[in-house]
């Protein structure tokens, strides 16, 4: 508690007492600490691609390296990739901030599970083909009340991760089942897996299993935090299970559509 005191006087200026106001600043301190931590992580994440763009352009501008030379072309490619990752990072930061502060309204309507599963598969098929991953889907005729595009976003995010962290020739499964009044979506891979002590922290912003994941795999460490926010805004839960070295399963639930929602 932070105390502020003021002396109180009567009309003649004679002290008659003290007024003390106490403010509970625990929450404010926690917010400030979170903000500081966020700024320090963000600036670190921004600095990495910015440093390589700066270095690359410096070499070209000074004439040390000719743009048409082999080395020049390599440097230009690095700068272009770093720019892409900066754009991805800034977009993800803004999106997560807007989701967390409630600035993005979900557009809810009755959604057919079959439809969104097909949409998500269509969006990742090319990435899977390029990575040599076989996608397997089982579908079911279920409905929920929610934001179609946002749930497709969660599915594509989980599928892209499953593909990204798997070896060529392995399989990724997308399944959906009904469990009492919930729809359970499962994305399963045979990839590198996740250590048990990281299974929860990976859903926090910027948490990656390996510090080099963003550089090597092109991620931002924000995808799962965005997924968690979207799923929770639908009244569902998201979690991961894994056998390290053998693969991972990502699960999320969305409540089944209720009768009164169908009538609306
Ligand atoms: P990123 O943009 O880095 O993929 P995410 O928030 O989507 O960010 O994931 C956070 C981290 O969780 C990843 O960097 C990776 O270390 C780990 N991860 C996520 N999905 C998988 C998976 N299917 N297999 C192994 N590790 C995963």
From TrEMBL:
Signal peptide: none annotated. It comes from the Bacteria. Residues 41-258 form the Histidine kinase domain. In the N-terminal section; belongs to the phytochrome family. This is histidine kinase. The chain holds residues 763 to 1026 of 1026 of the full protein.
């Amino acid at each position: 508690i932070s105390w502020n005191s003021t002396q109180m006087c009567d009309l003649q200026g004679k002290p008659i007492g003290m007024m003390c106001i106490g403010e509970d600043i625990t929450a404010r301190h926690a917010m400030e600490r979170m903000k500081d931590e966020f700024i320090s992580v963000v600036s670190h994440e921004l600095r990495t691609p910015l440093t390589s763009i700066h270095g690359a352009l410096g070499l070209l501008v000074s004439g040390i390296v000719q743009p048409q030379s082999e080395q020049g072309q390599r440097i230009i490619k690095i700068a272009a990739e770093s720019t892409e990752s900066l754009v991805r990072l800034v977009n993800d930061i803004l999106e997560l901030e807007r989701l967390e502060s409630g600035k993005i309204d979900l557009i809810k309507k009755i959604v057919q599970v079959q439809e969104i599963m097909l949409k998500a598969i269509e969006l990742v098929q090319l990435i899977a083909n390029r990575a040599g991953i076989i996608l397997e889907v089982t579908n079911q005729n279920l409905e929920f009340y929610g934001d179609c595009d946002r749930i497709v976003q969660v599915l594509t995010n989980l599928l892209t991760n499953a593909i990204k962290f798997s070896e060529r020739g392995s399989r990724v499964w997308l399944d959906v089942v009904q469990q009492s009044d919930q729809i359970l979506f499962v994305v399963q891979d045979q990839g590198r897996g996740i250590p048990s002590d990281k299974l929860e922290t990976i859903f926090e912003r910027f948490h990656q299993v390996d510090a080099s994941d963003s550089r090597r795999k092109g991620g931002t460490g924000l995808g799962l935090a965005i997924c968690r926010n979207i799923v929770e805004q639908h009244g569902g839960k998201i979690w991961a299970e894994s056998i390290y070295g053998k693969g991972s399963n990502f699960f999320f639930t969305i409540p089944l559509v209720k009768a009164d929602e169908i009538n609306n």
